[in-house]
Amino acid sequence: MNCPAVLNSLRDLSVICLGYSSRMNDKLSGHFKLKLIAFAALAAILPAGCATGAGAEQVVTNQSVGVQMFEWNWNSVARECTSNLGPAGYGWVEISPPQEHIIGDQWWTHYQPVSYKLESNLGTRTEFANMVDTCGKVGVSIIADAVINHMAASDTVGWAGTKHGKYDYPGLYSSADFHHCKSPSGGIEDWNDLTQVQQCELLGLSDLNTGSQTVRDKIVAYLKDLRSLGVKGFRVDAAKHIAVEDLKQITSALPSDTSWLFEVYDGPADPALYRAFGNTFGFNWAKSTPQMFNVPGMLGGQASAAVLSTYDPSESTITMITNHDTERDDSTLNYLSGKKFELANMFMLAIPYGKPMVYSGYAFSDHDAGPAMDITGKTADAVCPTKTSSTANAPADGRFICEHRWPGITGMVQWHKTVGDAKVQAVYNKGNAYGFSRGTKGFVLFNTGPAKFAKTVKTTLAAGTYCNQALTGAQAKPSCAVSARVVVAKGGSTKLNLAAWSAVAISSASKLK
């Protein structure tokens, strides 16, 4: 049970006990009555939104797997949690920003807030609450994208009808609540100047003065509102544009079991300072993966402790192959990379590094265009392709690709959960083939070249017949086609026959006999 629920129960119980003591005044000892009063007082002073620390757990961990469901509306996420995300083993979902935003058909309209009402073209407050509850029931937590560095860049009317000016948001913020930068344009001109990066306007967006207690209180109230609905954590958009001390004060006002994912991209803001109280996204990792899979044989050795130690710390890094920004600037692999994108995600889930997050978006040729909308201007319900595979043709622009359903990815979500924190052993690194075991729980091997791989490889797994989770997805048993079966002989050796740009992944969970 979470802290708010426990405390509410304590308060209710204290009221009952005190009421009982008053009715039984002649029969209860004074000592017992004092204990009841003390108990009630303790329950009363504990804050309703607290997390006591004891037993409080983050949902974003090295052992869980998340997925960014970019621009999926709330009803679609709720259905996907029940039908696919929960059964596949995903632990959390990063959703797009839920607050009221400017009107438009571009994806970035959600990053221009006009109020903190939970009303947007992705759904209503009621639909949002239902999504959080529905997903929670199948073990999938919601991480909300929080836009708290800035408000909108224009004078217009928001999705829910909120009229505003660039520095005037009635009942929320006025001109005094924003930074007014002294650069010639008022915006960031020197991206190596930390003061400009954190006090000047990003792309013309009105920059909130998070150094103000008044501003921080309003941001905290918004985040607490989301937590009251069951949201378990936040991706903080443009976190590097918020001073570390300001952000630290905001985060410290939320329950201690809140998961924090900070967007700290290239620049003068030191990611290590943000990692002291949350996680940062592994942009360095994401940008290193294209060469691993675009160049045959380059993958070898990338899971070694020596190589992984050169990246950001595993315990506070969100690993990803792409996100909504990097898939648009061609710095990372994306859905157009097809099989290589799938293999990269599988590799991310195979190695003992970071807190993995899969990405699932929609097809686009215009980098600004959002997903398909209905006649009311709302984002249309997500409809996945009939064949969700890395080898299938991409859907039409604006339609969802559903990469999170690709068999190799869902199979490795299960594999990742099975191997846990088991160490890398029995590394195989020859030619274009690279693989390893994770303790005695799992084995994986990638063929990252154009030629077929047919050799016998040593594993640490027990003898038996296994199902290749790279082919079957999350549902590895009991129906496993003969072509997907892998036989491990006594002593751990297995004879593999892999096509170009493919993989094999077996684990104790996929053992048939």
Layout of helices and strands:
Layout: H1 3-23, H2 30-45, E1 66-69, H3 74-88, E2 92-95, H4 125-137, E3 141-146, E4 156-157, E5 163-164, H5 194-199, H6 213-228, E6 233-236, H7 244-252, E7 259-262, H8 271-275, E8 279-281, H9 283-294, H10 305-308, E9 317-319, H11 339-350, E10 355-360, H12 407-419, E11 424-430, E12 433-438, E13 442-447, E14 453-458, E15 464-467, H13 469-472, E16 485-488, E17 493-498, E18 502-507
Helix pairs in contact: 1-2, 3-4, 6-7, 9-11, 11-12
Outline type: globular
- CATH architecture classification of the largest domain: Alpha-Beta Barrel
Unreliable runs = 1-55
- Distance between termini? 38 Å
**What's the average pLDDT?**
90
Q: Give the CATH level 1 class of the largest domain.
A: Alpha Beta
Number of strands: 18
Name of the CATH homologous superfamily of the largest domain:
Glycosidases
How many distinct domains? 3
Strands in their spatial order, largest beta sheet:
1-2-3-6-7-8-9-10
Q: Enumerate how many helices there are, as a single number.
A: 13
State the helical fraction.
25-40%
| Structural class based on helices, strands and sheet pairing | alpha/beta
Global Rg: 25 Å
CATH topology title of the largest domain: TIM Barrel
Biggest β-sheet strands, sense, barrel: 8 strands, parallel, barrel
Proportion of strand residues = 15-25%
